[in-house]
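Most newcomers find our protein records easier to grasp once they have seen one. Nothing more is needed to start thinking about how sequence determines fold. Here is such a record, shown just as it appears in the course material:
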Amino acid sequence: MRFKKLYIVFLFLFAVQVWGQNNGAEIGIITDNDLYTSSKNDMYYTNGLEIFYRYVTKNDNPKIYKKTTESRLGQCIYTPRFLNTPSKEIMDRPYAGYLFGELGRSFFYKNESVLKTDLQLGFVGPNAFGRETQRSFHKLVGYKEVRGWEYQIQNALAVQTHFLFSQKLFTNVQSDFVDFHFRSEANLGTVLTGLSTGFMARIGFKKLAPVYNSNLYGGALGSNESEFYFYISPSINYQLYDATIQGSLFNNNSPVTFSLVPFRFNSEAGFKYRKNNLNLSYIFMYRGRELYSKTNTGYFYGSIGFSYLLK
């Protein structure tokens, strides 16, 4: 009952945000799946789906070019490498689902730096419906039955914060087609706690839009510029806690858990495109080894994004 009330609250907040704004807004969907990189690569972070709505908000700070507010609903599903056996002894990652609602704010500065903050509420565990979603998808496309979800991470309340800061580098070097940025992220909460830092480069197939008007961090709202660029962003991650691997902070009732590999190398690279009101993206994600298990390795997956600017 508590889960249903929480979920209804976020659905209501999302609907209010969508229908309460009609200028400088964007609505979109992001879908993650390891099948977007390889038909044989079905492990670890196996599927994700998010829908979002963002809009421009009032700004009185002369250093800030644009502020945006965002609502998001999402589900993430994690599985071990081997899906066709119920034996927990060979699992090299726990089964886990994470369902959340999110409210966030982004600040796009005139010097092309960006600060993003958000708060997520939801559940890790059976209340996240990871088992039901994956079984329905496998049945729909004719994949083998997934066995082992009875050993999934048990229910835990998710209260999660996320912060991202990006700073443009080499501002004295003038280039219309290449730029570089320093980027750091922090997660703090009952699902994830960790830090990441690294660099990012954009390489444009046409003149790059300023970051505050680019779809790189969701700043395309209110601008009419077209974009098509490649970007790459390697980073070092220190992970202190992950409920989808270690179980709840407040109990040890999950049947399969692992210790974390704290330091990882992560990277992402992809293409982003914008023309008129349409935003499209494809991103290749690599994540370093996350936990201590004989068969656990680094992995990769793809992310496809589609959004539409409402004017």
